[in-house]
Structure formats: structure tokens, C-alpha cells
Amino acid sequence: MPRYRIVHDHFDGLPTVALEDTHSGARAMLCTTGATLLSWQQATADGTLDLIDGYASAAELHSQAGVRSGIMAPFSNRVADARYRFDGALHDLQPGVPDAERLIYHGFLRSLELPIAEAWADDEAASVEFACTAIRPGAFAGYPFALDLRILFSLSDQGIALELEAHNVGDVAAPYSCGWHPYFRLGDEGIEHLKLHLPARHGIATDAELIPLVDGTAYQPLHALPALDFRLPWAIGHTVIDGCVADPIADAHGIVLTRLRDPLNRRALEVWQHGGLVHLFTGDTLARDGRRAVAIEPVSAMTDAFNRPDCAAAIRLPPGGSHRFRCGARFAQG
Predict the structure, then answer these.
(1) pLDDT of residue 215
(2) What is d(CA 60, CA 273) in angstroms, rounded to the nearest whole number?
(3) Is 151 within 8 Å of 254 (Cβ atoms)?
(4) Please, how many CA atoms are within 13 Å of residue 193, restricted to the half-sphere of its CB?
(5) All structural domains of the chain
(6) Cα(243)–Cα(183) distance, rounded to whole angstroms?
């Protein structure tokens, strides 16, 4: 019998697929709505620990409250005023919505029902691949482009891994960015005592609406943005964080690591990604269980990238072109 296995189940009436390690007891459960990671359990000396603060019910998932573990595509975080200009054309993501009520963020993928294209398991890992062909001209206001997306989740002894690949199947270039919005926890004690470590060169300065400042003024040295400065491991404390760290420093293998550690029980997480930026959020505005987990969000581009000339090349996906973004997390204790 292989070490890993696939189990099909349900969560509050919604179809799920679980990736299981029969040796260690590790288990990752995903819902077909948005390919959303609902839980990631690891065995510890004190019992089973769920490292993800996921949705509590199907109703909460459908409401997208908190965007828990949401996969963000074809854009991540906010688009200012829900409008952007691309190749000379102005696009409105919320037509008819009054200016005072315009707010859009985190793309469309997270709420779509995604079929399972394939699932497999062996002695090395368990993996599931979801497919999305729903992003087409006319399907979503303000986004008249055609994308196919592939979402691959894996569980192995290295933790969990996510690969998100987009392919432009249309005849014109498309704007595209992506990311992942998981909330991580290391126990039931909250986040104030957890130590966060993210070596980087800059933070992104924003206005009151969390939109990055114009031009190069968005990029600030981290000492000027102390709420985002975790170049050395510091306890989160009571700091309210909802911002982006730019130019993270990669290791010798080109991988960016954000470390979260609980010094009380010596549990630790490493969130890894290939390139991009890291958005941090302490969950203060969540309707449920605020500041019980911290969102460490790997993203391919900064907030409002669709409206920024300095991001134009990074978000441009030509006809026939593909974009791949990889990230994940691993757990350690001791």
C-alpha cells in the first residue's frame, strides 16, 4: 500500500478531496469551490494540530468572509476603484456600482466551482489538480480575456505545495497576477507571541484605502515602515499589519522564506515561494476569530498592479503565453 492516499469526502455538504500521509498522519483537505484549502493537519507531541485557520461552514465559504486560503487570480488584492486601463482601453470591474461602494479584491477564481482534473498518490506524495476554463470574455465584468488555469496541490514529507499556472488562450494580451491567501496558526494561543522573520529590502507604502502610493514612492525602506519590518525575528505583539513586503531576499536556491515560530512550544512554519512579494495580514478586521492566525500571502505582484506602469511588464500575459507561480509551507517542531 502506498504511503500517501487520496480520500474523497464532504465538508458541510460540499465535495472535498483529502491528501493523506498514512505514516505521519498529516492530512490536507481541499474543497472544489475555489480549490480552497480547508485544513492542513500535522501530528505533534500534543496531538493533531491544524495549521490552517479555514472556513467553519459552507455558508462562510460561499460568503468568502476573510478569503480564507483563497487562490487569488486573475488579480491579487485590490484594484483601485475597481477600474484599470490596459492597452489603451478602460475596464470597469464593477459597472454601475456607485463610487462610494466600489471595492473589489482577490480576483474571481476563489469562488468558482472547479472540477478535479486528476488526483494521484504514491510513496512520495499525494496530489490533486483542479482545472478552470471559466475565465472568458463576457463571463466577468471588466475582464474580457480568456484564461485557462491549472491549480496543483501536493502533500509530501516536505509539507504542502501549490502550483498555479495560467495560460492565455485568447487572441490578445491579458493582464494577470496571482497569489494565495492562507491564514496560518501554530496553536490556540493567538498570534501576539509568535515570532515572524522575513528578510527583505523594501515595504510598500499605501494610502488610507491600502492602495500603494504612486510611482516609486510606494517602495520604502523597511525602517520607515516598522509594522512590516521583520528583517530580524520579532514577536508580532499587538502590531496591526495589513501590508506588503517587496524585494524579499531569496536563499541560495532562489526561494523566498517567511518564517513563523512559536517560542513557547518550539513549533515553526516556513512559507516558501519562488519570486514575487509577500503580503502580511494579522486578521484584525475578520468577522470571526480576529488575530487568531496570521495571513502570509505569497503574491506575484503588488496590490493595484493593473494600474501601475512599473508593473506593466510583470502583469502582461501575451496570447499563447503562460505564467507559473509556486509556493507552499512546511512545518517543524523541536
Answers:
(1) 80
(2) 28
(3) no
(4) 11
(5) 4-333 (2.70.98.10)
(6) 15
